[in-house]
Amino acid sequence: MLERIKALLKLQAVDKEIRDINHAASSYPARLKEIDDDLGADRAASDEKQAELDEIEAQRKLIESQIQAQKDQIRKWESRLTDIKTPREYAAMSREIDIAKKSIRNQEEEILNLMEQAESLNKEIELIERTIFEKEKGYESERKELRAKLSSIEKDRSELEARRKNLSEDLEARLLSVYERILARKGGIAMAAVGPGGACEVCRMRIPPQLCNDLMTGAGDRIIQCPSCYRILYIPEPPEDDDGEEAHDAGAART
To answer: Which domains does the chain have, with CATH numbers?
Structure first.
């Protein structure tokens, strides 16, 4: 096998590891985002309920201030009753006092209604906050595990990138350019073995006999690409036996 092919196969192996590790790593940030989104939705719900509660509290305070103003006005009117000379004026003033007192009763009922709403909202907020607390506890270990995996992956990726850089530096620029162009266009697989039947093992198209012969003989010391998928072709080296020698055909071994 040509030394350049061997070098490309080593590079392809590293690129596959990088691709696999990137694929594995892509799921971890997504899961962390899912966790943050889940908790974020609960916090948004809590904030919305809190905003409703704040509005109710503001309404209650406004009504209480209106009640206090009406009570002050009633005291003034009641203090003037003794100074009124005519029955008509007395009746008119008494009517104003009764109307104010009725208004106060209605407003006090409204306050009671607001207080009931506030109590209900407080319970909802407490439930949501308890849910957030429980989720945070449940997610804590998963977050640590995911971050540890990401840290480990980053370390592995740095090591692989360094290995790739070293392997790339040993290849001529033109060949590396061809390899990387195919790598980018063919889903991260730039190399393709030719099987025993003479077909590309990636796209399954049969390779012309002359190209197969050139691959076997290393004719012209040139890089040969699949006519169909354009990946760089190579013929795998036969496996070695336990003594490190190439395994012979079973029939030949018996003779």
So the answer is: 23-169 (1.10.287.1490), 173-254 (no CATH)
